Amino acid sequence: MSSSSPAYDPDLLRGNTESMLLFLINEHHCTYGYRLIKEIEERSQGFFRFKEGTVYPALRKLENDGLIQGEWQRLPNGQERRYYRITEKGKEVLKERIAMWQNFTSAMNLVFKPLMAGEGAD
Predict the structure, then answer these.
(1) What is the largest CA-CA distance in the chain?
(2) Is there a domain that residue 105 lies in?
C-alpha cells in the first residue's frame, strides 16, 4: 500500500481479525502467532500491522471457542513455540464467515458503486 493510502478505522476491522487468523491457520495447517502477524502484514502490503497484544488474545479466544487447537513444541534451540491448527468446528465457522464477508462486501460495493465510478463524490 502506498503511504498516501488512508489509514483504516479499527471499527471496520472489528470481528475480522479472528477471521483472518482462522483463514491463515487453515491455509498453513499448523502455524504460530508471530508468523501470522508477519503474513498478515505482508499480504496486506503493510496496511495491517498487528501487535502481539492484538493477535495473541484473538488466538486465545479462538482456542477457547474450540475453533483452533494450540500445542507447545520445543524448537531445536530449546525454545518453545505454540503452534495452532484449525479444528473441524473452526473450518465450519470459517466457511460461514467467508460467506458473510462476501455478502457484506457485495452489498457495500453496490451501495458505493456510483462513488467508485466517479459519480457523486461531492
Answers:
(1) 60
(2) yes
Q: Which three cell numbers stand for residue 87?
A: 479444528
Question: Which burial class, exposed, middle or buried, applies to 88 when counting CB atoms under 10 A from its CB (0-12, 13-18, 19+)?
Answer: exposed
The string of pLDDT tens digits covering residues 51-81 is 999 999 999 999 999 999 999 999 999 999 9
Question: How many structural domains are present in the chain?
Answer: 1
Let me know if residue 119 belongs to a domain.
no
Structural domain including 84 reads 10-109
DSSP summary character for residue 30 = S
Whole-model pTM over 0.85: no
- Which grid cell sits at 101? 464477508
Q: Does residue 68 form part of some domain?
A: yes
Collapsed DSSP state (helix, strand, coil) of residue 92 = helix
pLDDT, residue 11, reads 75
Domain with residue 57: its CATH number is 1.10.10.10
Enumerate the H helices of 1-122 as residue ranges: 10-13, 16-28, 33-43, 52-64, 88-116
Cβ pair 101, 19 in contact under 8 A: yes
Is 5 within a domain?
A: no
